[in-house]
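Q: I have 406 residues here and want to know how they pack in 3D. Can you give me a structure?
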Amino acid sequence: MNIRFWLFWGVQFLGAFNDILFKTLISFMGARFMGAASSSAGFISVVGFLFVLPFLFLSPVAGILSDKFPKNKIIVWVKAVEVVIMALGLIGLYLKSLPILLFALVLMATQSAIFSPTKYGIVPELSKDVPMANGFLQMGSFLAIILGSVLGAFWAGTDRVVLMAGWVLVFCAVFGLIIALFIPPLQAAQEGLSVGGLSDYISAVKVGMSEILKKRGLFWVFWGLTLFWGSANFYQMNMISFGIYDMSWPNWMVSLILLVTAGGIVVGSLLAGLVSRHRVEMGFVPFGAILMAGFMIAFAFMRLTFLLFLFAFLVGVGAGFYTVPLNSYFQKNADFSVRARTISVLNIATASAGIIASVLLFVFGRVFEVSPSVMFFVLGLLWSVVAIVVGQALRRKRYCKENGYG
């Protein structure tokens, strides 16, 4: 890994930390202001929805910008905007104004949506070892999630500490901007692109979809990542219900087991990146799927808290092994001239999958009254099928290659 990558890693880490810390602060503060449990849950749901909304509608524009301009410039522009947004957030925290905080949250989510195609598209431009770079990048993202979640929960307790957290957000944004200024200049993928009109928006989606559809491997990786992020959202929400209703845990234990899963992703991502060493090791994909499948199924039968936490950690490890090669393959095989727009289509799909997962959880949990344990069992069976299908496909591909069938 060269210095260019580590500069970007620092920018990404600070940005992800700010995202999660700000979102967590607002969620806890809003829940406290709302008082009633039902109102608090509704507010937290609104916060989650507001954060994902820009990824649905702004991803194509973000893809155009990332292909049109050098990605290092996009990073600087985005980080400069983040400084302004965090200053606004600090004002909202000082005034204890939920409208200001929610407005700042929407702006922060918009900034994250604009940054996303650049974040994933820049990796092959900064490092020749794409799998290892993705391992470190995903490790950093989930470390930031853990730190932001834990500190946000602690700092949301008192007004004085909340204000201190606001200054931390501003500091991280400014420091991230300073680091971004040192990322060396990069080449624009396609300078002649136009942006702003509805036709440009539609064209970006068409270009991205065309790239995915014409490359068989890219097509299957696209669906593999979409399924993963939909399942991840389902897992997170179902774990909350599992902990509260099936295990009668207090809220802090539910939060802890989710953080343990994130810790597993940190370890799995790092291991997948280190072991890959310049190769996109697709054999990790069924291995990761098997880990996720087996230990999700185990949730349906196990009631020992220690083992449940161990299972959650191993689900995270499996997730790291599953996603690192898929992200690496997608980045390496999407053409440079349209890479960001292709990633923007993936962002739309993963955001949509998250919303569909929320709807499915509501339908099965509230309407059909399926228990969280049973839903973990079904989710585990789904990933068992994925592991088998991917494993068979890889074996067939290896057999054809060894026997000269193309």
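Q: Anything worth noting?
A: The chain has two domains: 1-187, 206-406. The CA atoms of residues 168 and 284 lie 38 Å apart.
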